[in-house]
Amino acid sequence: MVTTVHHVFHNSVVILALRLGVLLLLLPATLVVGYVELKVMAHMQHRLGPMYAGRYHGWAQTLADGLKFIQKEDIMAAATDRAVFSMVPYITMLGSSLTFVVIPFSRHGVIANLDVGLFYALAVSSIGVIGVLAAGWSSANKYSLMGGLRGAGQLIAYELPLVLAAAAVAMQAGSLSLVSIVEAQRYVPFAIWAQPVGFFIFVAAATAEVTRTPFDMPVAEAEIITGAFTEYSAMKFAFGLFAAEYIAMIGMSALAATLFLGGYVPLFPFLTFIPGPIWFLLKTGLVIFLLIWIRWTFPRLREDQLQRFAWKVLIPLSLVNIFVTGALKLAKLI
C-alpha cells in the first residue's frame, strides 16, 4: 500500500497535474483560508462565526463575499491614472503567486527546482512593494499616496530581517535550492535545531510583509481607510487587497514551512507512509494558523513602534543569528 501511494506521487503525469494545480488553486485557496480565519477568529472570541451562507456552518461565506464584490460598481476618480490604477491588482498578486514556482511540495513535485530558488522566492515576494506604491500614486489622492509611502516603508524595513533569517537557513543547509534545504532537514527541522530564533524572526517579518495585525498600519481601516487602496472598489479592491493578502499569507507560510519545518519531509521516520504533499500542506496549515492566531491576539502597533521593532530588534537579532549559525557551521556542529 505504501509503495503504491509513493509510486502514484512519483508518476510524471501526476506531478505535472500537481504543478498546474498549485497555480490554478491559488484563488480557491484564498476562499478556504479566508473562511478558516473567520471561524478560528470567532471561536477564539467565543463566537460561532459564519453559520448561514451555504447553510452548513457558513461554508459559503467567503464565496458570498466574492459575489458581493462582483455586484459592486467599479469607480475611478477623474484624475486617476487609469492604466496604472487598473494594473495594481495584478502586480500585488503577481509576486505572491510567483513564489510557488520554486516551493517544493514533494521531492520531485516542484514547478522549477532552481539552484537559486531561495533567492528567487525572496526577490519575487518583494514585487508587492511596487504595487503598493503604484496604488498610492495612481489614485490621485494625497492620502492614498501617503498610505502607499507608509506601506512601502514598512515592507522595505521588514524585508531585511526576512532575508537575513532566510540567509541563516541557506548557510546551515549549504544551498540556495529549496529542495536541498528541505532534504537537509531529513532528521530534524531547522526550527528545532539551530534556527528557532530564525523561525521567530521570519514569522514576525512575514506577518509584517503581508501587512497583517499587529503590523497592518499601512492598510488600517479605522485610521487611514486602507491606506494606498482608499480609492479602490469592487473587484479591483477584492483582488488588489484581500486576494493579494491571502495569497501572500499562503506563500509566506509555505516558504516558512519549507525553510524551517522540513516541508514535505515526515516529522518522524515511522510516518513515511504519509505522502510528502500531505506533510507539506499540514505544515503550511500550521504556519497559517499561527499567523491567524497572532492577528487576533496582539493589538496594532503605532508606526514608530513598528519601525523601531524592525530596525532595533529584528535586524540586530537576525545579524546575531547569522553570526551564531556561522560559528556553529565552522565548529561542524550543524
Secondary structure layout plus pairing:
Blueprint: H1 2-10, H2 12-24, H3 26-44, H4 61-71, H5 82-98, H6 117-125, H7 128-138, H8 142-173, H9 178-183, H10 196-209, H11 221-224, H12 234-260, H13 276-295, H14 303-330
Helix pairs in contact: 3-12, 3-13, 4-12, 5-6, 5-7, 5-12, 7-8, 8-10, 8-14, 10-12, 10-14, 12-13
Helix-residue proportion? 55-70%
Give the biggest beta sheet: none
Radius of gyration: 20 Å
Gross geometry? globular
Q: What percent of residues are in strands?
A: under 5%
Structural class: mainly alpha
Could you give the count of β-strands? 0
Number of individual domains: 1
Taking pLDDT < 50 over at least 5 consecutive residues as the criterion, the unreliable ranges are: none
Q: In sequence order, what are the helices and strands, one letter per element?
A: HHHHHHHHHHHHHH
C-alpha termini separation: 36 Å
Mean pLDDT: 86
Q: Give the number of helices.
A: 14
Observed structural traits:
mainly alpha; globular; 334 residues
Description:
Helix 3 (26-44) crosses helix 12, helix 8 packs parallel to helix 14 (303-330) and helix 12 (234-260) crosses helix 13. 66% of the residues lie in helices and 0% in strands. It has one domain (73-330). The protein is mostly helical. The longest helix is centred in the middle third of the chain and has 32 residues, at 142-173. The model has no long low-confidence stretch (mean pLDDT 86).
